[in-house]
Amino acid sequence: MRRQILTSIVMLLTITVVLGFGYPLVVTGLAAVGFDQQANGSLVYRDGKLVGSSLLGQGFSDASGNPLPRYFQPRPSAAGVGYDASASGASNLGPSNPLLIGFVPGVNTVGLDGDSSATNPFATRADPSCVPTDPKGNPVTSPTSGQRYARGPGGSYVCDPDTIPERAIAYRQLNGLEAGAPVPVDAVTASGSGLDPGISIANALDQVPRVARARHLPESVVIQLVSRANQGRQLGFLGEPTVNVLDLNLALDRIR
Amino acid sequence: MTGWDWGQLAFVSAVTVVVAPLLSRYLAATFRGGPAPGDRVFLPVERLAFRITGIDPDSGQTWRGYAMAVLAFGAISVLFLYAVLRLQGVLPFNPTHAPGMPSGLSFNTAASFITGTNWQAYSGETQASYLAQMAGLVVAQFTAAGVGLAVALAVIRGISGGSRTIGNFWADLTRSLVRVFVPISVIAALVLVSQGAVQNIHGFRTAATVAGGTQHIPGGPVASMEVIKLLGTNGGSFYGAGGAHPFENPNGFTNMFDLLLVIVLPFAIALMFGRLIGRRRQGRAIVVVMAILFAGHTLISMQAEAHGNQLLPASVSQVASGHNLGGNMEGKESRFGAGGSALMTVGTMGTTAGATDSALDSYTPIGGAGAFVAILLGEISPGGDGGGLYSMLVLVLLAVFLAGLMVGRTPEFLGKKIRAPQMSLIIAYVLALPIIILVLGSLSLVLSVGTKSILNPGMHGLTEVTYAFASAAQNNGSAFAGLSANTPWYNTMLGLTLLAGRFVPIVLSLAIAGSLAGARVHAQTRATLDTAGPTFVAFLLGVILIMGGLIYLPMLILGPIGERIVG
Q1: A4 closest CB neighbour out of B72, B143, B193
Q2: Which candidate in B330, B456, B480 is best for mutational testing of the A interface (most A CBs within 10 A)?
Q3: Distance between terminal CA atoms of chain B?
Q4: In this predicted structure, what is the pLDDT of residue A1?
Q5: CB A168 to CB B77 under 8 A?
Q6: Do A185 and A96 have their domain in common?
Q7: Measured between alpha carbons, how far is B88 from B83 in angstroms, rounded to an integer?
Q8: Residue of B nearest to A2 (CA)
Q9: Angle between helices B169-176 and A2-15 (to 10 degrees)
Q10: Among all residues of chain B, which has the CA nearest to that of A94?
Q11: Alpha-carbon distance B27 to A181, whole Å?
């Protein structure tokens, strides 16, 4: 046994030197020679200043978090407060979690007597799947007795703006779509990394009229830029075609 | 599923069908002994390694000696990695200023990487230094893969060979690293970098975003880790988001390339088994069983995810069209789509990699169940590097025994009789992991230290916990990541589960091989059970499914199946 342990130690040290340092550094060296741009993160500069990476999504909202109408908007993000590249990650919300899908009668609503088939106690006519949240962001799962819905700190009733039904409402509002108009699924769901650089073509096209109006451009010009930012499928059949939001917005800024 | 999803599945299948046999020929030539391809390059490297470490590659070990070497190497590796993680804050190569990990997390992470599980209770961007990632985690990913392949080779020699010794662990480990894992890794890493995967030694770079904010763009030796994470069926990523991160998995091509890196080698190892024992039909029969299981769980998940989450409002358009992605896109990247994400993520679940490109916790109940089933069946579709083969061989022996009982003959495999000593070991092997998963999973569901880590309420929460233990015990490492597993309870319990899940099966399968090593080989007669024909393939599938079903069905009904029915 002592021999085995000694051999283990020598073996592990050898492997650590060769594979722990040698291997990554050799690959780094080869990558720097062959693919410097990619190896460094496909960085994008404008006027000599680093503005991001064409592989990482970024937010296009103002300081208070409202989406800027003149920019195409990326997907919702669960990375930090949104597109935080030092905290990549997904929402990890399950498919029936009220924080994701809102309160759906018979699925995740609970009545006062524990009846799980109860209708959403927080429903309003305009928003049948509303989920009020407490100040910490946890869902209020059952109303206190006698109360029809929970009230926020200001006394008014608050719905979690991050559920899919709420995002759909906000998306329609932002883009001037009529109530109940279909919304592309990627526009209201958070990605796996929280740094998704792309959106679907349907999502981009829905945003074209708004962006064109905000920039006083003809829609045809904007549509042309969208199709130029469409990355297509790899080798023509692998993956899905997506529109790179950063590339598209930079192209828009170059026009005016 | 769209036509594009079927197209990607067909692409993956076609590449595997072409490459795995070629690779198996190379592997068989490499590990048969005697001259091997690439000797001109590899032989001097090997000789140097043997001289440094003082190993005599030709001295054979009995199964006990082999197992002792595996355990000693495992123990030293865990200790070393634990030390690196604890001390990373004061060690060099730390541009992101990651502090030393606390003891519970260090133990959990060390156990996790040494066992090839790569369960990650930490987040890569901020909690691991570049030194820890390179010299600690990547080294563990290489050795875990090498140990798996080495044990498989020893088991093959025991089951089929005529000698009491079953090879030399140190020689097997060195050879598999020098001749298989390192050369493929270097080439594949460069392929990934060419597509956009990051490979540098910078820390965060601060960008002033277009809308006036700031973004800290991470760096790191990512591609070199990504490759061995996949090729070594490890699964542990550089970044927290894993294979969903654009810097690890930049586009639709790399998504399928990643999947192929995971599955081709285990399939090739099974074919290598056939070549090494001189019965290629036997290797192919095992591959057919693996492939059927792979297709089963992968298709179930792809179908469910492409169909979408039925609980969303009808006005959210989940139907795929030329312009719309469609499907259940929560936790999935737009460039992969719902079907492509499920193909990659659940495709790797039948191995010990558990490498994901999307958030499993947000999968539909049936989509997530596909992943769960792949793990619970024991990761044999096609399994980890080496681990897939020795797990499958144990099940083959079990099936041979049951078939023998049915026809009333002494069961034999490759001409060797399976008797009581072997059967006791086989039953211990089959029961060990389910007992760990069910007992510790149940404890976590009744103790408050366990339940307070659950993110999603109800049946989905039960799945989060039981999945964690199944994933740890089977050394998969994927997670329903809503569970906050970085707590003393989960770090410790899952850490112990990881070690047991790795080393108990290794020791038992080596023991089985040892008990068959040198046993008399009986001549094949007309009455010998054909273990490579279609009848046996179907029978083996039945044994696998019924065994898994008997043990785990109640748990699945309380978890994903119940969630689907109630939802």
Answers
A1: B72
A2: B330
A3: 21
A4: 79
A5: no
A6: yes
A7: 8
A8: B72
A9: 10
A10: B362
A11: 57
Count other C-beta atoms under 10 Å from residue A114's C-beta: 8
How big is the CA angle at B523 (ends B521 and B525), to the nearest 5 degrees? 140
Full DSSP string of B434-456: HHHHHHHHHHHHHSHHHHTT--S
The parent domain of residue A148 ranges over 92-189
Contacts of B364 in chain A (CB under 8 A): 95
**Whole-number Cα distances in Å, A102 to A190, A199, B456:** 15, 23, 13
Backbone angles phi, psi at B190, to 5 degrees: -65, -35
The full DSSP string for A132-144 is -B-TTS-B--SPP
Tell whether A197 lies on the interface with B, counting CB pairs under 8 A.
yes
Q: Is A226 on the interface with B (CB under 8 A)?
A: no
User: d(Cα B137, Cα B220) in Å, to the nearest integer?
Assistant: 13
A188-216 residues labelled b (16+ CB within 10 A) or e (exposed)? bbbbbbbbbbbbbbbbbbbbbebbbeebe
> Residue B104: pLDDT above 60?
yes
Mean pLDDT of B286-302: 97
Nearest chain A CA: its distance from B478 CA (Å): 13
Give A176's contacts (C-beta < 8 A, 6+ positions apart). A209, A210
Mean pLDDT, 10 residues at a time, over chain A (256 residues)? 92 96 96 96 96 97 93 96 92 90 79 64 72 68 50 57 90 94 96 97 97 97 96 94 97 91
Is the same domain home to A28 and A67? Answer: no
Does B334 contact A83 at a Cβ distance shorter than 8 Å?
Answer: no
- Residue A145, pLDDT score: 43
* Rounded CA separation B334/B181 (Å): 32
Measure the CA–CA gap between B207 and B394, rounded to whole angstroms.
Answer: 54
pLDDT tens for each residue of B182-222: 999 999 999 999 999 999 988 899 999 999 999 999 999 99
B302 touches chain A (CB under 8 A): no
The answer to whether A255 contacts chain B (CB < 8 Å) is no
Q: Cα(B371)–Cα(B348) distance, rounded to whole angstroms?
A: 9
Most A-contacting residue of B56, B210, B256 (CB-CB within 10 A), to test interface? B210
- Chain A and chain B share a number of CB contacts under 8 A equal to 398
B13 touches chain A (CB under 8 A): no
Looking at the 3D structure of chain A, how many domains does it have?
3
- Give me the residue spans of the domains in chain B: 3-205+215-310+323-566
ipTM above 0.90 for this complex: yes
> What number of other Cβ atoms are within 10 A of residue A117's Cβ?
10
Residue contact B315–A168, C-beta within 8 A: yes
Answer whether A7 sits within 8 Å of B72, measured CB to CB: yes
Note whether A60 and A30 are same-domain residues.
no
Same domain, A182 and A119: yes
Q: Do A200 and A83 share a structural domain?
A: yes
Q: What span, in angstroms and rounded, lies between the C-alpha atoms of B181 and B52?
A: 20
Domain boundary among A158, A189, A220: A189
Sequence-separated (6 or more) residues with CB below 8 Å from residue B34: none
Are A54 and B93 in contact by the 8 Å Cβ rule? The answer is no
The verdict on A55 and A110 lying in the same domain is no
Contact B193 A34 (CB under 8 A): yes
A28, A34, A41: residue with CB nearest B201: A28
| Chain A residues with beta carbon closer than 8 angstroms to that of B72 | 1, 4-5, 7-8
Among A189, A210, A234, the domain-final residue is: A189
Omega before B382 within 30 of 0, i.e. cis: yes
Q: Is B71 exposed, middle or buried (0-12, 13-18, 19+ CB in 10 A)?
A: middle
Summary mean pLDDT of chain B: 94
Chain A CB contacts of B170 below 8 Å: 7, 11
